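Render this sequence as a predicted structure.
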Amino acid sequence: MAAPDSIKPFSPEETQRILHHLQQPVVFINMTGGWPALHWTAEHLSGCLGDKLIQFRLGRKQETNSPLFETQCSYVEARLEHFLSWTRDQPGADVGPFCDYPNSEYWAYADYKYIALLFQHQPSMFEDVKWSEFGFEGRNGRESTLWIGTAGANTPCHLDSYGCNLVLQVQGRKRWHLFPPEDTVNLYPTRIPYEESSVFSQVDVLRPDLTRFPAFHGARAHIVTLQPGQVLYVPRHWWHYVESLDPITVSVNSWIELEVDDVARVGEAVTKAVVFALKSAPSDDNKDNWLNPTEEGVASHNESMQYVNLAVRACEKQRGLCHSKLTQDPRDTSPVKRDSRGQIRENCNLVRDSVPFSVPFGPHLIPVRCQREYSPETTKDPEVKSSRNCDDKSLEDCTVSSDAAQRTKLASAVGLYRGKHECSDGLTQCRPRDHADGTSENSSGDYEESVHTKITTNDLLDCLVHPDIISRVTELLLERHTRSHRTTTPS
């Protein structure tokens, strides 16, 4: 049973300090007692929304070895009443637009629904969600999204370009598969389908095709099943795949920028310009459904470049403000740190606190432990505490943090996209990669065919907008802009 409303394990100030020091996912226990949002079951919400139509995303329950992206799903608009009748499979029940989708074959997901829009005529419901108790003064349901799904409903594995996530589980259980940012190279990132705020993984993390994605074998999974009343914290740039386990699940998600990273926004602007330029060009292989339904539409190249320039100027402006306080080196491309209200923090370097702080893990704050290797067997543990953790080490012991590892990260990423062949620097001559026993991986016939495999626009994009490549391009772009600014500014 949740703790009484008046008794919380952490005060808002304590919770804020914890969040600013966390480098790993955690589950908060007994922090939501007394929240009216805990009564937001699908049945309760159906009564609140009445005849209001909600868009549901539907996917087949069949098992594959590929992610089911939003661009590949079916969509219907229906009332929650129809959704509930459909999930119960009642004979003669009116299931409305769901009639063409047997619930034995399909799952349904009303995902990423902005509460501010759903309940714009019932603003009192915003107060049912109390993120202020996590130290975010004034933040409630207005800044949150609602997620309602059936068993099997899922979000493809992705990372969010900006901010972190706080997720309140209201009804049913959801299992989260999380991977640290250092595992990006093992998750084969892609920007197709394109969504500005997300980078998707090409791997089906439940049923990975290790022939196509061998590096995924080294991915380090952090798996947790979130129970009603619990809150999960997902740090910035952590990969996550989410699946609903029970017949009906309801959760509330709030995306928050603890520290605004203007450099990351420049990178996203660059990515957008490259993707839109290449995918908007007429060609034989540009006929796929590449723009995620969450995006408003395709921008022209002029609009994309305006976006790049605005992002660069914003980055330079914030860096200048920080410089005026600490005489920071203008060549430093480190992100400016701001608090949850968007105010620039006095300490503009990357040191979080001058006073040592130890995160108070315990019965009310459960770390989501890492596992040494990821395999289908590791998805069967439904508990908050993960079994098979890294020899009882902390997350910091399990993540790649050495300078040498970071320096080889980009080289590894490029190597993965070369596939099964080793190529010369000129990329004009390729040979099969040899096995340890000295034998060639391919016969001469296979080699001849694989050398001439067609490279598609999407293949090219996967390389050009890989997160590591974009990071380096962003760095070069900001350096160029800084030099130009120095030469044009009168002394």
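Summary. The mean pLDDT is 82. The CA atoms of residues 82 and 95 lie 4 Å apart.
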